[in-house]
Amino acid sequence: MLIRNYSKVARSFCLNKSINRSFTTGFWSNIIKGPEDPILGVTVAFNKDTNPKKVNLGVGAYRDDNGKPFVLNCIRKAEELIANSDHEYVPINGLASFNSAAQKLTFGENSTAISEKRIVTVQTLSGTGALRVAGSFLQRFTPATVYLPDPSWANHKPIFNDSGLSIGTYSYYNPANCGLNFKEMTESIAKLPANSIVLLHACAHNPTGVDPTHEQWVTISQLVKEKNLIPLIDLAYQGFASGDPEYDVFAVRQFLKDGHKFIVCQSFAKNFGLYGERIGALHVVASNEDEAVAIESQLKILIRPMYSNPPVTGARLVSTVLNDAQLTTTWRSEVRSMASRIITMRESLVEGLRVHGSKRDWRHITDQIGMFCYSGLTPEQVDALARDHSIYMTRNGRISIAGVTTKNIDHLAKSMCSVTKN
After folding, report:
1. Single pTM value for the model
2. 388 in catalytic set
């Protein structure tokens, strides 16, 4: 009996061991660990550092002068006003009042294209979601190559790659002066094949902070139209760049004025401080109302199996602010204040570098605009800042100016002088 029982136990043990082995070497065994996001790596290194003077200049989110997240007063008021709202689904294309408000903010209160019902707007999962839906839409109906500025936001390539689009680049940044290489940019765009998709940053180019002037935008719009290209405009910082929402959206309205049929991907993360609400919009400018109706139907077909419906809270907050004159005035004041702090920190950093004896020309820091600054620091200098001074940023030298405060700017300026003195 003992022998028979032992045999059963042994057989059971071997069977279980075989099953366990199949689980540990089965379906997922060929999956390898992917690389860490470079910005996440900056934050991980920062968190491990015990230096009380450490500075994180990698995070792409606004901070106040105490280095704390900033919630806009207009949003606090809007939260009170929607506190008793339900949590029902919104339609596939999103909250209608939000979509209408987003259109007017982007294209203008008195836009003829809006009154003619030629603009299709769907609510999306922030700007990233807008780009992803746009990528899938373009791949399905105009499967051309999308050309990105060199450099561009790091997430653009994976978004369009996963959308099934081919990816190319056009000239943009001039590392010699940390500015725009407008001549090479226009020459590069002029060589793109007809019907190609050209991605443009409306304002506060990420990662460089280098923008065309309004006069240059007029030239770019004319060139894109002459070459019969499809403009795809990433609008992530309206109001946050200069403090003036109309100034920052000049490129979009110029392209509309020039008769382009184009796409705008809009985010409300930075300019409304709604990072975690994932609120954005995708706008498609059509030739006429019938074309717009057809486009909207196809966008709904794309969105339905992707995420069914967008989240409602962020849409209600933005809609509440933009549909209330007093709250809109408050928002405009607050977004101007955020932009002003960023601009002031840029000016103070340049002055701090001068005070600490740097002989380099740092004017590009104030010439650039928006949350990010392409500092011109080399990867080796960035490494030295982290190793010797506990200052963290991505290795391409991109500084998130939002992380600079009156309390850490002297340490930053002195440290940048130290690593660039030779």
Report:
1. 0.92
2. no
